[in-house]
Give the backbone structure.
Amino acid sequence: MTTEAFDPESDGAKMRFDEAMSYGDYLKIDDILSLQAPLSPAHDELLFIIQHQTSELWMKLAIHELSAARVALETGEMPAMFKMLARVSRIFEQLNSAWDVLRTMTPADYTRFRETLGNSSGFQSYQYRMIEFILGNRNANMLRPHAHVPKVHDWLAAELARPSFYDDVVAYLFQGVYGSLDRMPAPTLNAPHEAQDEIQEAWATVYRDVDRYWTLYELGEKLVDLEDYFRRWRFNHVTTVERVIGFKRGTGGTSGVQYLRRMLGVELFPELWNVRGEL
């Protein structure tokens, strides 16, 4: 047994980076680590900031994957799209786990820095809003919090002006089941998607003959899986907020827990849930 410290360079590891790109250079670690700037001396404010910053990074990836999934659907690259949708589900699983860390913060901990937040609130996350808009939960009123940043406002408004990803899925569904879009209801561009009998009937056709419509069946299940994880994220958000602030109003002015509970009733793909009761 030797007591000499192991030198990774002897195993081929590069150890000098004066003229080469390092791990920190590639990931811009110094830049990332400089972006946590607590406004109070409270110990737990750093946890709060990192929780929300990392969530925004995961949401950036979710938008990247959903945008690519949309293109894959348009070009008929179904296996690639299924992989992307599965990845989005796992992103929300990751976001779910993050609540467990935040829940280690007690009401007393949060009170020490809550006032420093001013009116800032997760309610104003434009990336979260984009995810909802892409998936079909659309509300033009939610553009108003972003009017002061034209670039963001225009980005979200452009999404509202086009069919949602679920609308694109429904078009693919009708084409696959009926061979045309004649029976497909018109997409609702700037309002939340609501369950429609014609769409549920088309999904029922798929679920009653899985072997014939296997690709559509797999697509339906990928969407249910995604919404399942999304719902869990919303639920954990509610319980975390209730645990930390009770029934106080949110920093952004909402009713807090009551507002978040109302959001639990929102269904992204209602026909896919409703059809289960008629099989």
